[in-house]
Amino acid sequence: MLTCDIKVTGQKVLSLGMPSEAELQGAENTVLSQTAKNKYCDFKIWEYINNQTIVMIKSFAAKEDGTIEAIRTGKKAIIFSTIIDGSVSEINSNELVTHNVGSIGLGLMSEKNFHVTQLNKGGFFEKLNIIITDEDMEYYIKRYPEIFSRFKDVFSSKKPFVHGVFDQTGKITAIAKEIKTSIISGNCSSQLIKNLIVECFIRYFSSLGEKIPEKYALRGKIYAARHILIENFKNPPSLNTLAAMSGTNECTLKKGFKQEFSMTVFEYLFEYRMKLAVNMLKDETLSINNIAVNLGFKTQSHFSAAFRKKYGVSPKEFRER
Asked: What is the CA radius of gyration of the chain?
């Protein structure tokens, strides 16, 4: 169970809670969310659950000085944390430490973990946590032993640890933001989130100067290409340009992308646009023509033809249903 108590001048003004890993056992590709607004704060939590791996995004805007006291009870877990927007001050061992965008921490959480965040009036931060218990860590160790085997004996440790680095290149922050966008927009699958989690860990250890096997370096380029594609989905670059931008060649990009995502680059782009279209059509304040423009289609008729090809109905018929 995760509980967050928000206190202003020592008085609890808001309490939010999320289920424990045990309560979520077996849940796959599930997103939970909580939102709260009052005169003291605006607070949002999104929690993505896939078996014993949890991705949590916390967004907080403070209207008064105060603290967040977060208590988590559950299994021991590896936690990867990064600030993706704003800045936050946390109390560690009675010492106040400020973290800005790009601050990253990796550590072991005990069965009961208490964490205090200091809030300043007018302050804002957004933080992403990846929590992996020992059961799910076995999956990562089996699939990516060169990266995750170092955690094999960590769970038997009685002492929590935290190692911090700063994301000098911004690449980890970009991946973290992509995880957030995928979860909040609903454009996520369990395999995609797992792959992005692996990318975070690969780039974390690479930032420590550790040599990463070539196969992971190539994988990083494939995900860099995917990120560029999504960032420019309205006006995507050519395959040749995309390959150059991600540090590889067209042939390698095409082969690697198909192996990683089981579809070509532009099939992936089409699927991504169609998922965005479904979400946009749920917002009836947006006209179908505006949606077509927002998705990068030249005309509404081009958008309608693409949507019908994917879903068998026109955007208008989909909205009416």
From this structure: 21
| Number of domain units in the chain | 2
Of 103, 137, 168, the residue at which a domain comes to its end is 168
Distance CA 91, CA 116 (A): 6
* Whether 156 and 302 share a structural domain: no
- Tens-digit pLDDT profile for residues 13-46: 778 777 666 666 666 778 888 888 888 889 888 8
Element (H, E) at 202: helix 190-207
Q: How far, in whole angstroms, is CA 236 from its chain's centroid? A: 23
Q: Domain span at residue 50?
A: 2-168
- Contact call for residues 3 and 17 (beta carbons, < 8 A): yes
pTM for the whole thing? 0.77
Residue 79 within any structural domain of the chain: yes
Instruction: Say if residue 160 is in the same domain as residue 283.
Output: no
- Among candidates 80, 82, 62, which has minimal Cα distance to 177? 82
pLDDT digits (tens, 9 = 90+) for 202-251: 989 888 888 877 778 788 888 889 888 988 999 999 999 999 888 889 99
